[in-house]
Amino acid sequence: MALDMNKLNDFVGKFVQDFGASLHAGTVVIGESLGLYKALAEHPMTPAELASKTQTDERYVREWLSAQAASGYAMYDPATQQFSLSEEQAFALADENSPAYLPGAFLASLGALKSVPQLIDAFRTGAGYGWHQHDAWLFHGTEKFFRPGYAAHLVSEWIPALDGVEARLKAGATVADVGCGHGASTLLMAQAYPASRFVGYDYHGPSIEWANRAAERAGVADRVRFEVAAAKTYPGKDYDFVAVFDCLHDMGDPVGASRHVLDSLKPDGTWMIVEPFANDALQDNLNPVGRVFYSASTMICTPASRAQEVGLCLGAQAGEARMRNVVTEGGFRHFRRATETPFNLIYEARP
């Protein structure tokens, strides 16, 4: 074997970055959970000052702050021995209303990683591992991570990109959000379109309980409800608008789900499908975004589909061509890419 030492050193350097990042994920979740980022965003602090502000232990906080500075998630001033957040760091780490709020992603990843022992067995046997079998950190992290992006784009860009849907929602429509999880997408739509009525469906009972409590807190429970139901069997007919957010590829039988959506829509209704951004060819997804989605799909999406009937296993990088096939095999005649972001593709389907 003839090793190229420069290439080896480059690869080891990549390992050092990745190994540090994997450990750093835990420190982000700790900082978010204890309010350390939010407190530090107020003004520069020493470890003792931040510990006092957040009622935490100074020695732990000092090590945590050092890790944040080494990772580029905080700044350190040797002259004052204070740590601080730049405006950009605070925007991404301390502002939960920011479209770039990031801590939820780390909570979701740590939740998914708890399933690794079971997934090792699944790799050997080909068995599935359902969404409901994961640790609750995955459910909470997914909401925290996805909600800011939905808040930034859903009402301002995605729905307006659909033919006639925005006007219909403003006038008063009946809407189903299928695979709604904790209901973040449902509630964002309900708050934006007070004349419309919404129902969210998800097979995961604890998520539905969470979503109904969230609707009460948001003051929209009079026209929003959440029910336990699967994508192929949820109740109701003549919906004006059906939406699925980042979950069609997780389903065991997405074609069957497509058929059921078609049956549940009005003849002039619209189905919006939000999916992770993906090109059709694997080689075109070998980039940082693709790395995130393929890794998540290995631990979450593909096992979830395998755990259900059919087990089509589209994966999180299915791409537009495969989604078109799923939707048209389900009976829809019209399908198009309505818009996109660096992280999402938004499709419009009509009967």
TrEMBL record:
The keyword Membrane does not apply. It comes from the Bacteria. GO terms for biological process: methylation. This is Methyltransferase domain-containing protein. CDD domains: AdoMet_MTases (cd02440). PANTHER family: METHYLTRANSFERASE DOMAIN-CONTAINING PROTEIN, METHYLTRANSFERASE TYPE 11. Residues 28-93 form the S-adenosylmethionine-dependent methyltransferase Rv2258c-like winged HTH domain. Keywords: Methyltransferase, Transferase. One of its GO terms (molecular function) is methyltransferase activity. Residues 170-284 form the Methyltransferase domain.
